[in-house]
Structure formats: C-alpha cells, structure tokens
Amino acid sequence: MHDDHKEDFNLLEVLKKRDLIYRIIRAFFHEEGFLEVQSPLLVDEIAPEENINYLCAINEKGQEQGKLITSPELYLKRIISRLNKSNCQNIKGIFQLSPVFRADEYSRVHLTEFTLLEWYSIGKNYKDLMDECERLLASCARAFNLVDQNNNPYIPYQGYKIDISSPFIRLKLKDAFLKYAGWQLNKNPDPLKFDIDLVSKIEPNLPKNKPVFLYDWPSSMASLSKLKNSDPCYAERVELYIAGIELANGFSELTDPGEQKNRFLEEIKKMKQKGRKPPALPKKFLNELKNMPQCAGMALGVDRLLMLLMDQNNINRVSLTP
Questions:
Q1: pLDDT tens-digit map of 47-62
Q2: What is the fold, at CATH topology level, of the domain defined by 2-318?
Q3: What is the pTM of this model?
Q4: According to a count of CB atoms within 10 Å of the terminal CB, is the N or C end of the chain lower?
C-alpha cells in the first residue's frame, strides 16, 4: 500500500510539472508574438536523414498508411512558406508542441515517442535562436521557483548547480573537438569517429555548471541548414547542452530548393549504403520551399528539459507512459 501511494504521488507530481512546462512554453512564445500550430502526426512526407529511423503506420492488411513524424519540420516550413507567399505581416514566428516518433531510440535520455517543442523565428538566424533559448530556459526555471538569493535562475541537477542566467557558453564545435578530442574537425569528418568522440569525449567533458551552445557544424552534418557565408565548410547549426545532455538542435534554415534537393539525395544515398529504406523525396516540401523567407528553427526535447528541472537522471521518470 505504501508503494502504491508513492507511485500515485510521483505520477501526480509528473502530471503537475508537465502541465506547468506546457503552460510556460506557450506563455513564452505567445509573449514573443508567435502563433501555435498543429501539423499532422501521420504524414506522407518526412525528411530523409541518415541518423534518424522513422516508423510507418500499417493497416490490418499490411498496407502502409503513412509515416509517423520524426519532427514537424517540413510541415511547419510549408506553413511559413504559405504565410510569406500570402504577404502575412506582423507574425514573428510559429511553434508546435507535440509527440514525435523515432524507431530504435531507447536509453536513459531517449524514448521512441517523446514530446518535442519546435519553433521557427521569421527573419532570424541561429544566433537569435541561442538568445531565445536563454530567455525560454530562464522563464522555465523561474516558473519552477529555481532562483538563487540574487534572483538568478539555476537548475540543481545531479549535484551540480547550473547557472542558466544569460549568456550561456558559446563554443565552436571545431574548438570543442580540438580541446577535448585532440583532432581538427573538417567539413566531412569520418562519421563513426565523429559520433564516438562526440559521445565519449566531448559531451562528458563539457562544463557542468553552465549550459553550452556548440555551433558551426560540418556542412556534411547539417542537411537542412544554411552554410556559413564566411566559411562554406561549416553550417549555421547549433546544439544546446546542459550537464552533458543534448537538449536542443537548431539552425539558420536553408531556403534554396535546388540545394536542398541535392542534400536530400545525398542523405538518401547514405541511408541506402547503410542498408536502410529511405523515404521518398519530399516533393511537396521542395515545391513550397521557394517561398520560404529567411528564418531559423529550433527543436527542443521537452522530456529532457523536465528531467533537468525535476533533477531526474532517467527520462522514464518524467514520462506518463514509461
């Protein structure tokens, strides 16, 4: 009976904290001038991405009915493209809070189905996304009453007091590899060596008392991102890490349909080389991309953010269906 009561209490706490985080996120973006949208969960087009495995919906006859979204990205960009084509003014951006689905992902920080916050800031770039992340996380911490005696927001996580007042640490990815892995990053690094060193040498050694933005990723590892004008070997991509946990991923958006098509074809080629079945080229998205204005988009894992705010070391402890 004691165990049942404890389980009910934990469930209630998770329910309350999830409700709070959703309300804070929505209030933040509404205050910023964004509109909330809801794209389909079952879609006919997804982005071909080498490192993301997708799930299909199959009917009782074994026929594919569509794919479950790995991200609402393509559909949110199509909405922005239509808004721009219609000359809609005074819209700062759009955002979505929804479940997404990825096959073969299960670990201390991974779930097959998880909650993703994705937003797109019109007329902005990846540096603006970093500023928005800083303001959003400060709002979340304050809503959770996580402020010190000087009214500075922080996150107490696994024995660390993480200062989340602005500015966060901003570190070029190539500098992180040189410092922690001891080798020089180029535009097309060996994917296996890159992944192993990122997970085993970079992430564990990032500062624990302050969030870190790792920015300017190799061009071969940013298939939907704009390349840097000053150095096309790198893309305007950024990832946010807190306590060694990847929390968000974003970039200045690529808006050239021809270049985007070529990037997708390269991803499809890589998937085939791995023996995977790639999705079809997303032609509807590519057709509308020509109308998309300059913007920047960020995807943030809400369950991981809750892990941090609730000081839990496993994503299942903040999930309603672990």
A1: 999 989 999 999 999 9
A2: BirA Bifunctional Protein; domain 2 (3.30.930)
A3: 0.94
A4: N
